[in-house]
Known about the structure:
The protein is α+β, with helices and mostly antiparallel strands.
Amino acid sequence: MTLGLEREDPYDPLGSALAVRWVQGFPKQNVQFINNETICYPSGNYIIFLNIQTKEKMALQCPSGIVGVMATNSPCEVVAFSDRKLNPLIHIYNFPGLTKNTVLKGNVLLDYTLLTFSHCGTYLASYSSLPEYELALWNWEAQVILCKKSQQGVDVNQMTFNPMNWHQLCLSNSNMVTVWTVERSSNEHHLRVKLVQLPAEDGSILEETDSIFSHPQLKDRIYGPVLPVSAIAGLVGEEAETFRPKDDLCPLLHPTIHCWTSSNDLYVGCEEGYLLMVNGETLKVTVLNKTEEPESSDRRNIVSPITLVYQKEGVIASGIDGFVYSFIIKDSSYKVQDFVEVDEPVEHLIFSPNYKTLLIQTQKGSVHTYTFGEKPAFVKTLDAYNGNIQAVDFITPGDSYFMTLTDLGEVGIWWLEDGSPVSKISLSIQPTVLVCSPSSLSAAVGSTDGSVYFLDVSHVSHPREVHKTFLSEASVTEVVYDQRGQYLFVGTSEGYVFVVNALPSSSFEIFGFTEVSKGISQISTVSIIESDIVEVMVLSSLPETGRSRLEMFTLPTVLPKVSSAFTDERGRLKDEFIHKFLYEIEHVLSSAVLDFQSRQIFGLCTQWPFICSYVIPLQEHVGICVLKPFRKLQSRLYGPGKVSLSSHGMWLLATAKCGTLCILDALSLDTLGYCRSHSYQAQGIQAVKISMDGQDILLNGRTDGTLVCLKWKQFVGALATNSLDYYLKLLTFLSETIEEESTCLSGMQKTTAEVEPEVPHSERQLSMDFSQEELEPVENTKEISWIQAKSKAAIKKEVQKFSKKRREIKNGIRALAKTILSMMEENETLNYIAKLDQQEFSLDVEELEKLHDESEEEVAKIRNDTEMDNLAKRYLTELIKKECWDSMAVKGCALKCFHIPCTVENFPMKERTDEELKELESVMCQKKIEAECLKIRKEVVEVQATVSVNKKHEEDEEEEDENVGVKDTSLPNYLLGSLSTDFGVDTSLLSDQLALHTRQEKINQIILLKDIIYKVKTVFNNEFNAAYKQKEFEIARVRDRNVRLQEIISDLQVEETVWQPEFEDCEKPERTLEVDNEEVLAGKYVRPWRKAKEKLVMSHKTEQWLTFQNSNIRQRALMDMMGGVLEVKKEDILRMVIPQPAFMAKPDALWSEEERKQFRDYEKKVKELNEERDKYRKSLEAEMKKLQNSILESTQAFDEHLKRLFSRRMKAEMVVNQEELKINNLLFSLLLDEELSTRELCLNNYLARKQEEKVQTTEAIKKAKEELDIYKEHYDNLLAEDKVLDRSFRKEFPEIPPQQVDLLYKLFKRRPRFQKMKMQQDTTSLVPFGDQPGSDRLNKEAFAYLMKAMDELDNISNMPEGMDEAIWEHFCLTRRAKVENEQKVKQKAAGLVEMLAFVRKRVEEDEKVQQNIEKVFHELILLQEEKIEFQLDLTIQLLLKQGQVELENFQLILEYSDAILINKNIIEDLNSVIRTQGQKKVASMMESKNVHKGIYQIEWEHKKMEMEMEDLNQKAWDIQMLFFSRDRQKFLNEPHYETMIAIQIGIMEQTIAVLEKTHKKNVDNCKKLLKKLGRYSNLKDVANYHLSCSLREELVAISERRDICNAIGSKLTCEQIAREKYDNMMQQQKLTNISKQQAEQILILQAEVERLRMKTFPALIHL
């Protein structure tokens, strides 16, 4: 591969010490053809050119970082690309020389998003991103912008020139398609844009409606004029032209791709699967119909074309299914055919310039070519790897092959010579790092699951996996071989460093591990041939302290023989054997390496651009040793990076996020080489590797997917000697080992490190004794890591050691378990309250506390949620109550009848606000003033009209006027439109419905109508309140009578219920807001102690009552002797009983005479008592019936009253509805009036914009015509000069004979014939665009070809015989001047045609603007007519009684378009005027002779009246405009105004004095408080001092204990692990923020350096 751009880096003092050997990358943007055989695509900082025939590659490096967007021009064989920096540039280079053609610099601030060349011209179109969003057209040869235009906020996905007409461009995104036209007039260029109207989502074509102009065909005679939606929405600006209601908007198709056709049309593919055809001139859209074919089992359905390319038969499209389809288009339909199948989703299609080759680019980056011909060929040109390169390394010995690892687990082997792929293997894992072994042809791959995979690469064409080691469950972050390939060091995210035997012959034995700090950044090793130890250094970060930690240990080369002695039972390496030391750096290092002499450490600072060296102390130490920088070197590396040493340890390689590689001398830190191979925008360099001989350097980017191989330009002298000597020495040392291990590798099969399988905890069966030996594994086993297996073996050994003690513990646990089981059985027999939960029997105290805390948290959460829910409900209740209850001046309630189902409701009413009352008062005052003014005017008019009329006529007219006035003030209900007068409401201030024309009159009428509604409701509510009080009285009276009824019923002892009416909830709605105890169904929760207290109090009260009853002797005596009463009442007769004598218990025969006499007296008394009972019972029954009748009569009377009130309610509601209907009609008229005003303002604004546009178009026409006249004058001059040259030809040769002159004239008219390059038949049949129109560049080329042909005609061999050579030379010069002049005339003629077309378009635009202006004027006239008609065509409300107007069906007229509605008072007034005029005529005939006498008197009186009228008008105006403030009102109304002011001043002075006294008292209190706080602060300072002394001692003790713990190497607890993870995350976030800040600094510095460089360099002007 050749590098197309070799430049000297201005930052490198050594020049270009490093050169790019080759670049390997795959396209992430669309691939382009530079010619028929070569394609190109950007990759990172380079543009790669690939010959698809020979596979030869070339690379062009961007001068200023990563490549942005790219475009190619096949006819000119140039490539243009933009860089990504502040104020980016567009670079244009020639191919195949890859020389710089030009650089274009515009005004773009951030980035270009699209570039495209015109197909046959010297034009380049560019589109920028935010903030400009600017489309620019360049003449890239002249380095000027011809024209540009911005469209804010519009991103564009695709931009193409029309191949048949470079004046047209198409820009599209997912929401729109626009066609831009370039109009040229001489040297001026203009961009005009047109938007393509896309169909709806269902493919239907939408009709475009004009939202500015109305539609006369839409009329509505009832609701007024029909206005556009923009006027209804109230829009008056430019947004009114494009406004659409939300309901009228429908989703449109979403374009994904477009392409031009040979007929200047556009094919547009949509996301919904539709294919559109757009006419290039009219932009008419046609939806092409897909011709359905019989369905087959393997038929695929294309949802949306991703890319389209045009061919003669139709288009070729690709979907997301990995197939390329051919669309055969015929008329308005197309047919889909399978073209070719690709294994991956296709992203881009493009034809070669000769249309022989179709390039197919996939989403992964692979490139396929399909060659047309008799035998079509489908070839994979580029096979991209999966994902981005994660790691790279050389295969030993490092001079032929190298390996790469992607983030998707694909391992590839490449040839170092040209970077071509050899083979690849997929591991199907999530890899992290890859390294190659120096001692064998193997490689190790680390993964996120904690495993290390070993690969055999002895056969580069067939790599294979031979071994897998599962070290731990933590992710592998670092894998490093020592320089001699004896050990493999594996670092994990948990802070473990495993030591593995690197030789395949040992089956990659694991020696052990050592613990280091978490967050391992880098592992560095030193393994010199002469030494018998391997030194290892591990770098990790300490985010909590802002430092870096270095941990160093050594391993002997004899470790494989004595590995068991170096480790404990758990596999941990013993610190005393490996000599482990700890060092700390006071700042954060992103990378560090140990030099080969093990005397110093090289580190790359994270926060500062410094490379530091640290000297390792020779004496041993205990604990942590802090290293200070020994030497600081400021570098040009910004951001985090990595440093490493070459194989011989003499070179220090440093890379950073800025994408720069710097090679330094390890001894002097002098710069040996410098190269910027990647960019900061692509996150810099991911990995760097140098070969063992030091000649090749591999670098891969982090996100750009680019792999770069560097080489030394001059690898000679000491630079090469040291490296090659060590390389040969190391290769000689390892050659024997490599051969042995290669033999071993060839015989290895895929194996896995043997570890015991882990049994999942959920699948183990535990016996009741919890014995470790009774754990039985099941069939489903899980692979466990090596460290877990070691830990498990150690635990098993410890279990065997302490088996006796375990047995004792088991017996105790067994006994405890039996006790708990018995307690659980007993618990099951208890009731629900005393029963414990199952978790209460757990012996795990911590678990119990955890469960208790969880339950408390859950209860607290539920309580909090409940409280919040209740609070929200209470808040909502308060809002509803405030809005619907508290704000009501009259609360809504109802009244129900006693006996019939009838309910009457009142009108709920709110209190009128002060503004409403003020408006009402002002309107009423205005109405009264108008009425008085009208009355005065009528009196003035009547006096003038009746001067010459007799008194009788005057009295008649006055009576008629009075009658008319009465009629006006008391209009009938059918003219008022409501029955509000039936409620006693004054309607005299209301205006006539036929007189409401202005807006203010309608507003005043609405205010008066609202007042009438309020008064009607108030009148009815007063009647309702009276009825409500009456019902309250009736209920109280019924309750009083029911008391007597209840007594009578109890005396009579009859089963009869007493009817007691009560108010219902609807009648007393305030009861809804109160909650009674009976409504609460849930019982109140009473605490146990309160229950016990209430029980004790109740028992105490019972005892007191019993004691009182026993001590009340009088009450007991009364009960025993007289039944508890002192006298017998009349009501007690019914309950009175005469006791029987005692002897009646004996038989009658045994009675004595005395007893018989007593019996007769007893019977007499019983008879008398029964008679009294009957009399009293009858009286009670009569009284009860009377009471019941009276209750029924009174309640029925109330029901009748309520029925009348119900009728009144219906009538009031009818009146309210009538008034509200009038208000709604007036509001609708006001709304329509406002819409008309908005419509008028919108049209005026639109007219103003069009008039401004008219001025601009007129100026453009004027300017274009002036330029046309000047250009035409030049053209006429050239044409005249051409004719002069033709006519003066014979005069140029006067000395030669006429025959020779005629012969020369024939030769003078002769022109060279152009032989057109005939294309081959197959090419002609493939290229769809044919001959394309020429451009300025093609015209120049044609003129050059003509001049070359003229040189052949001017050859002396074409000279006629016998002619002098001097004459022939003069003839040739004359003919050449004539030809040049003819070419100028042709060019001027072409320019003249363009200018004529430009002027014609400007005239058409001016005419269109003029038509719009005329249309707007016409629209304004129509709007004025509609507005006047609307103001005169009023909507009134009439009341018609039923049966008053009845017509037969055939007499009913349904159309009233030519009728008008007038008041009959107008007719009566007209009749009275006629009568008055007749009387005036008679009087004038009788008094005509006296007219001349009173003329002067009448004129004087007329002037007087006019002056009085003016005076009255001025007074009325002064009254209206009088400003009467509250202060003035108070001044006029208050008799002692000055006294009141003096009193107020005295009160204010007293208030100020009290406030000053209070303030002084508060200041004194604050001062006392400050003194007290000062004393308290001193005491606290003393206490804090004692605490700080104690804290210092405690910190010393804690530090000593921490050092002891670190020395012992105790195992980190879970809390410490979590804390360290959190600290690592915070450090990572901090580093990310630092990197962003440094990135901004880098951009600023780059811009400043570029400015200084351009300032210091001389400007080179092209001559």
